[in-house]
Amino acid sequence: MEKSSLDAMRSGEWMNGFTEEIGRALAECEERCFRLNSLPPSERAARADIIRGLFGRIGERFIVHSPFHCDFGTNIHVGENFVGNFNLTILDEARVTIGDNVFIGPNTSLCTVTHAFHADQRNAGIMRSLPITIGDDVWIAAGVTVLPGVSIGRGAIIGAGSVVVRDIPAGVLAVGNPCKVVRPITDSDRVVPVG
């Protein structure tokens, strides 16, 4: 049985991304994102319905601020208590798995897709996609870019402006371009809230 172009896209193999099937799915998702981003924040139920129909899976409790953009939506799988801040972009050509209690700051991009280096191949639509996995209790600060194939371990914090090009282990603070582990998160990082 021959793979659909959407299945080929999710396989991690180099393939032609300029197919009618992929084009239709991209256009449908763009329409859904447009409808979501056109609704005011006060239309919580309507916004939640669009997100539930757009994502492959999402928990009961979530906040997704507008504008939000994704390529397909169906490849996004999110746990409970998710916060996606303003201008979150998820290029979900491959699966994007986001755990429970994940906070993602504004102007952040999760990119599963890469294009061929040679211009003739790139112009012909040759691309591949690799999954992204974000563990439970992760905080990704503002302006972060996460590249294809990356996993971020449970409880990690990714500092603002970082470009995550390789896996980040659990329980660490990582920052920079390229993003590197700075130190573990320890009990000395606990704060005492006022009141």
How are the SSEs placed, and which strands pair?
Blueprint: H1 5-10, E1 15-16, H2 20-38, H3 44-54, E2 62-64, E3 68-70, E4 76-78, E5 82-84, E6 88-91, E7 96-98, E8 103-104, E9 109-111, E10 113-115, H4 119-123, E11 126-129, E12 132-134, E13 139-140, E14 145-146, E15 151-152, E16 157-158, E17 163-164, E18 172-175, E19 180-184
Parallel strand pairs: 2-5, 3-6, 4-7, 5-8, 6-9, 7-12, 8-13, 9-14, 12-15, 13-16, 14-17, 16-18
Antiparallel strand pairs: 1-11, 10-11, 18-19
Helix pairs in contact: 2-3
Regarding quaternary structure, how should these chains be classified? single chain
Give the count of helical stretches: 4
Largest sheet: 7 strands, mixed
Uncertain spans = none
How many separate structural domains? 1
Fraction of residues in H or I helices:
10-25%
Report how far apart the termini are: 63 Å
Number of DSSP strand runs:
19
Strand order of the largest sheet: 2-5-8-13-16-18-19
CATH classification, class level: Mainly Beta
Helix and strand content put the structural class at: alpha/beta
CATH topology: UDP N-Acetylglucosamine Acyltransferase, domain 1
Q: What is the H-and-E element order?
A: HEHHEEEEEEEEEHEEEEEEEEE
Mean pLDDT: 97
What is the approximate shape? globular
Radius of gyration using CA atoms only: 17 Å
Supply the key terms.
UDP N-Acetylglucosamine Acyltransferase, domain 1, alpha/beta, 4 helices, 21% helix, single chain
Give a short summary of the structure.
The chain is of the alpha/beta class. The protein has four helices and 19 strands. It has helices spanning 5-10, 20-38, 44-54, 119-123, and strands spanning 15-16, 62-64, 68-70, 76-78, 82-84, 88-91, 96-98, 103-104, 109-111, 113-115, 126-129, 132-134, 139-140, 145-146, 151-152, 157-158, 163-164, 172-175, 180-184.
